[in-house]
Amino acid sequence: MSNAEGLLRSRFDRSPDTALLALGDLLVLVGFIVMGELRHDVNPAESPLVVADTLAPFLLGWVVAALAVGVYAPGATRTVRTAVQRVVGAWVLAAAIGLALRATALFHGDAPLSFALVVTGIGSVSFAAWRGAVAYLR
Question: What sections of the sequence does the record tag as coiled-coil (predicted)?
Protein backbone atom coordinates (compact mmCIF):
# COMPACT_ATOMS: atom_id res chain seq x y z
CA MET A 1 0.00 0.00 0.00
CA SER A 2 1.40 3.40 -0.96
CA ASN A 3 1.54 6.33 1.43
CA ALA A 4 -1.09 8.18 -0.65
CA GLU A 5 -3.42 5.19 -0.50
CA GLY A 6 -2.96 4.91 3.27
CA LEU A 7 -3.63 8.62 3.73
CA LEU A 8 -6.79 8.42 1.62
CA ARG A 9 -7.98 5.37 3.55
CA SER A 10 -7.49 7.21 6.86
CA ARG A 11 -9.48 10.20 5.51
CA PHE A 12 -12.29 8.34 3.77
CA ASP A 13 -14.42 5.55 5.19
CA ARG A 14 -15.83 3.42 2.36
CA SER A 15 -18.98 2.39 4.23
CA PRO A 16 -22.51 3.03 2.90
CA ASP A 17 -22.97 5.52 5.75
CA THR A 18 -20.26 7.69 4.21
CA ALA A 19 -22.12 7.81 0.90
CA LEU A 20 -25.24 8.98 2.75
CA LEU A 21 -23.22 11.62 4.61
CA ALA A 22 -21.76 12.85 1.32
CA LEU A 23 -25.22 12.99 -0.25
CA GLY A 24 -26.52 14.95 2.74
CA ASP A 25 -23.55 17.31 2.52
CA LEU A 26 -24.24 17.87 -1.17
CA LEU A 27 -27.90 18.61 -0.44
CA VAL A 28 -26.92 21.11 2.27
CA LEU A 29 -24.49 22.86 -0.06
CA VAL A 30 -26.88 22.95 -3.02
CA GLY A 31 -29.75 23.97 -0.74
CA PHE A 32 -28.13 27.05 0.69
CA ILE A 33 -26.64 28.10 -2.66
CA VAL A 34 -30.08 27.82 -4.30
CA MET A 35 -31.66 29.74 -1.41
CA GLY A 36 -29.09 32.49 -1.92
CA GLU A 37 -29.79 32.60 -5.65
CA LEU A 38 -33.53 32.86 -4.99
CA ARG A 39 -32.85 35.66 -2.52
CA HIS A 40 -31.05 37.49 -5.34
CA ASP A 41 -33.93 36.88 -7.78
CA VAL A 42 -32.18 34.14 -9.76
CA ASN A 43 -34.64 31.40 -10.70
CA PRO A 44 -32.75 28.07 -10.74
CA ALA A 45 -35.22 26.60 -13.24
CA GLU A 46 -34.72 29.48 -15.65
CA SER A 47 -30.98 29.96 -15.05
CA PRO A 48 -29.48 26.60 -14.08
CA LEU A 49 -26.07 27.51 -15.50
CA VAL A 50 -25.88 30.59 -13.30
CA VAL A 51 -26.64 28.43 -10.26
CA ALA A 52 -24.10 25.82 -11.38
CA ASP A 53 -21.48 28.55 -11.83
CA THR A 54 -22.18 29.81 -8.31
CA LEU A 55 -22.07 26.29 -6.88
CA ALA A 56 -18.97 25.00 -8.68
CA PRO A 57 -16.21 26.86 -6.81
CA PHE A 58 -17.70 25.95 -3.45
CA LEU A 59 -18.19 22.32 -4.47
CA LEU A 60 -14.55 22.15 -5.56
CA GLY A 61 -13.53 23.74 -2.28
CA TRP A 62 -15.67 21.24 -0.38
CA VAL A 63 -14.07 18.22 -2.02
CA VAL A 64 -10.57 19.45 -1.16
CA ALA A 65 -11.43 20.63 2.35
CA ALA A 66 -13.54 17.60 3.28
CA LEU A 67 -10.70 15.23 2.52
CA ALA A 68 -8.09 17.49 4.15
CA VAL A 69 -10.07 17.86 7.38
CA GLY A 70 -11.40 14.30 7.44
CA VAL A 71 -15.16 14.77 7.50
CA TYR A 72 -15.55 11.37 5.83
CA ALA A 73 -12.95 9.64 7.99
CA PRO A 74 -13.90 6.80 10.31
CA GLY A 75 -15.31 8.29 13.50
CA ALA A 76 -16.02 11.71 11.97
CA THR A 77 -19.54 11.63 13.41
CA ARG A 78 -18.77 9.61 16.53
CA THR A 79 -19.80 12.52 18.79
CA VAL A 80 -21.78 15.69 18.11
CA ARG A 81 -18.78 17.79 19.10
CA THR A 82 -16.42 15.97 16.72
CA ALA A 83 -18.92 16.08 13.88
CA VAL A 84 -19.60 19.80 14.26
CA GLN A 85 -15.96 20.78 14.74
CA ARG A 86 -14.81 18.85 11.70
CA VAL A 87 -17.57 19.98 9.38
CA VAL A 88 -17.32 23.64 10.36
CA GLY A 89 -13.54 23.51 9.94
CA ALA A 90 -13.98 21.92 6.54
CA TRP A 91 -16.60 24.46 5.50
CA VAL A 92 -14.47 27.45 6.52
CA LEU A 93 -11.63 26.06 4.38
CA ALA A 94 -14.01 25.16 1.53
CA ALA A 95 -15.56 28.63 1.60
CA ALA A 96 -12.10 30.22 1.47
CA ILE A 97 -11.20 28.08 -1.56
CA GLY A 98 -14.54 28.83 -3.22
CA LEU A 99 -14.21 32.56 -2.57
CA ALA A 100 -10.68 32.56 -3.95
CA LEU A 101 -11.92 30.81 -7.10
CA ARG A 102 -14.80 33.29 -7.45
CA ALA A 103 -12.30 36.12 -7.33
CA THR A 104 -10.78 34.83 -10.57
CA ALA A 105 -12.08 35.16 -14.11
CA LEU A 106 -13.01 31.44 -14.10
CA PHE A 107 -16.35 32.06 -12.35
CA HIS A 108 -18.94 34.83 -12.35
CA GLY A 109 -19.32 37.10 -9.39
CA ASP A 110 -16.67 38.22 -7.01
CA ALA A 111 -15.91 37.80 -3.33
CA PRO A 112 -16.68 40.97 -1.38
CA LEU A 113 -16.33 40.78 2.40
CA SER A 114 -20.11 40.81 2.93
CA PHE A 115 -20.55 37.79 0.63
CA ALA A 116 -17.63 36.00 2.28
CA LEU A 117 -19.16 36.50 5.73
CA VAL A 118 -22.63 35.39 4.64
CA VAL A 119 -21.52 32.28 2.75
CA THR A 120 -19.12 31.24 5.52
CA GLY A 121 -21.65 31.88 8.30
CA ILE A 122 -24.70 30.33 6.65
CA GLY A 123 -22.66 27.38 5.42
CA SER A 124 -21.19 26.80 8.88
CA VAL A 125 -24.61 26.84 10.54
CA SER A 126 -26.17 24.65 7.83
CA PHE A 127 -23.43 22.02 7.88
CA ALA A 128 -23.21 22.07 11.69
CA ALA A 129 -26.97 21.50 12.03
CA TRP A 130 -26.91 18.62 9.52
CA ARG A 131 -23.83 16.85 10.87
CA GLY A 132 -24.79 17.53 14.49
CA ALA A 133 -28.17 15.91 13.88
CA VAL A 134 -26.53 12.88 12.25
CA ALA A 135 -24.13 12.42 15.15
CA TYR A 136 -26.88 12.92 17.72
CA LEU A 137 -29.12 10.31 16.09
CA ARG A 138 -26.37 7.67 15.88
Answer: none
